[in-house]
Write a structure and sequence with these properties.
- With 389 residues, this protein is of the alpha+beta class.
- It has 3 domains: 213 residues, Rossmann fold (3-Layer(aba) Sandwich), CATH 3.40.50; 55 residues, Adenine nucleotide alpha hydrolases-like domains (SH3 type barrels), CATH 2.30.30.280; 85 residues, Translation factors (Elongation Factor Tu (Ef-tu), domain 3, Beta Barrel).
- Helices cover 23% and strands 27% of the residues.
- The protein is built from 8 helices and 18 strands.
- Helix 4 packs antiparallel against helix 5.
- The protein is globular, with a radius of gyration of 22 Å.
- The termini are far apart.
- This is tRNA-specific 2-thiouridylase MnmA.
- It catalyses: S-sulfanyl-L-cysteinyl-[protein] + uridine(34) in tRNA + AH2 + ATP = 2-thiouridine(34) in tRNA + L-cysteinyl-[protein] + A + AMP + diphosphate + H(+).
- Catalyzes the 2-thiolation of uridine at the wobble position (U34) of tRNA, leading to the formation of s(2)U34.
- Keywords: ATP-binding, Cytoplasm, Disulfide bond, Methyltransferase, Nucleotide-binding, RNA-binding, Transferase, tRNA processing, tRNA-binding.
Length: 389
């Protein structure tokens, strides 16, 4: 079964390319595989080794090893490190565990806590890819004289007329392009995503069985790795004591409706658990004011947003990042891209106009850009604040 399609390189047309796009035999091509301990990255490592590549597996220990030993379905700690090591031993390639706990805390966890305290809804998995896996680990791969680094992400990398392009995965149910929008062109030239062209996760598990991997039936990770059972508030309280100070729940006119047990327990668009039933039409969280310790609620219509300002834009398009550009925009990982207009307002800032207003747009989330009627990722940015419309 072929996972990747050879990528034509103009300067090497007369030399046979291997499946990773290099004009040399697999045995002479070194690839570092980022192994989380899950099925996906394990299959990538096993398949590339079976094809004859010089594979080196690297697993990052990202958070407290002892506390994570009993947690299943996580990433990069405890049992997962053990599982990655067992795959390497069975298949027969070197495997290293690197302690990135301090880097992970500084680059991901601290910002996660501060963002929540500021009333945002952060996406730490994107920051982890951006600041740890595709920055620090990628540099480690280069230090190991690797030709490229492969991961188990479901996304496709192709080479177009202007260089490497990022595209959605073939399986829309597994597509992870939302979480990889901040991959830079330089990183993209070094990365490979062998699973992006597979039709389904079932195909990946079938391959794991064929390679005799004990983790073939291992469940997928469901939660953020350092947030047990999805309990964000308890993690924030532990990192920032006093963060759960109570305050007021008010309507759009400032009328006090109830009290709450801490702004960190609420997110934009939330309806349940507000403790304000019996007031007529359903009310939703439309804004958070952490400085005043207020949760502002309103009718569903108040959640509708048309203009989305974004910062820290990473641009992957062919042309310059300027002017007005027709795109499809995705403002949540669980929602499909929708028609929009991107207006550049600076070198790394933009304003996105959604042609059809969407509900639940939240600061701290990512807004990812796609080429209209295409699978190509044009980049993305971070939603800085929400404006109605």
């Amino acid at each position: 079964m072929t996972l990747t399609t050879p990528i034509p390189l103009a300067e090497a047309r007369d030399i046979p390319l291997n499946s990773l796009g290099f004009a040399k035999p697999p045995a002479e091509t070194r690839v570092v595989v980022a192994m989380s301990g899950g099925v996906d990255s394990s299959v990538v490592a096993a398949h590339l080794a079976a094809e004859g590549y010089d594979v080196i597996g690297v697993t990052l220990q990202l958070y407290d090893h002892g506390a994570a030993l009993a947690k299943k379905g996580a990433c990069c700690a405890g049992q997962d490190i053990h599982d990655a090591r067992r795959v390497a031993e069975r298949v027969g390639f070197p495997h290293y565990v690197l302690d990135y706990e301090n880097k992970f805390r500084e680059s991901v966890i601290e910002e996660f806590a501060d963002a929540y305290l500021a009333g945002a809804t952060p996406v730490p998995c994107i920051r982890c890819n951006e600041r740890v896996k595709f920055r620090d680990l990628l540099e480690t791969a280069k230090d190991l004289d690797a030709d490229c680094m492969a991961t188990g992400h479901y996304i496709r990398r192709t080479v177009g007329a202007h260089g490497p392009e990022l595209h959605m995965a073939a399986d829309p149910q597994r597509d992870q392009s939302y979480f990889l929008f901040s991959t830079t062109p330089e990183q993209l030239s070094f990365l490979r995503f062998p699973l992006g062209g597979l039709a389904s996760k079932a195909e990946t598990r079938e391959m794991a069985t064929q390679y005799g991997l004990a983790i073939a039936d291992k469940p997928d990770s469901q939660d953020i790795c350092f947030v047990p059972n999805g309990d964000y508030a308890s993690v924030i309280e532990k990192l920032r004591p006093g963060a759960a100070d109570p305050g007021e729940i008010v309507d759009l006119d400032g009328n006090v409706l109830a009290t709450h047990r801490g702004v960190i327990h609420y997110t934009i668009g939330q309806r349940r658990g507000l403790g304000i039933g019996g007031l007529g039409d359903p009310l939703y969280v439309v804004r958070l004011d952490p400085d005043a310790r207020r949760v502002i609620v309103g009718p569903k219509e108040a959640l509708r947003t048309k203009i989305v300002p974004v910062t820290e834009v990473n641009w992957l398009g062919d042309g310059p990042f300027e002017g007005e550009i027709q795109i499809s925009a995705r403002i949540r990982s669980t929602r499909p891209p929708r028609p929009a207009i991107l207006r550049a307002t600076g070198s790394n800032r933009a304003e996105i106009e959604l042609l059809d207003p969407e509900e639940g747009v939240s600061p701290g989330q990512a807004c990812v850009f796609y080429a209209p009627d295409s699978t190509r990722v044009l980049g993305g940015g971070w939603i800085s604040h929400r404006r109605g419309g």
